Amino acid sequence: MPTSPVKTRIPLTSFGHLVTEVKRQLFGIEPPVSVEYTGWRKYFNSYTPQGRRNYVLATYGILVATAAVFMIHRRNRQEKVTSSSTI
Q1: What is the pLDDT of residue 8?
Q2: What stretches pass through the bilayer (predicted)?
Q3: Closest by alpha carbon to 7, among 17, 22, 23?
Q4: How many angstroms separate the CA atoms of 42 and 33, rounded?
Q5: Would you tell me how many other CB atoms lie within 10 Å of the CB of residue 34?
């Protein structure tokens, strides 16, 4: 009877943890340590909690900035239309 190379010590509380354990045990894939990163990759990566948080904050910041520019542009356009029509 074939046996699985995956050890049974994997907790089933998190699917992501399960995938990580399987990768580590079957393929020997280890995520890089944050010390290995230099430059902007030290702060923006998908392996460390700090890197993930920074991606989320940057995404929300870009969305807020885009919305603010859109609102300012729309307000300026409305002011131009009303000022030119009153002349």
Answers
A1: 55
A2: 55-72
A3: 22
A4: 10
A5: 15
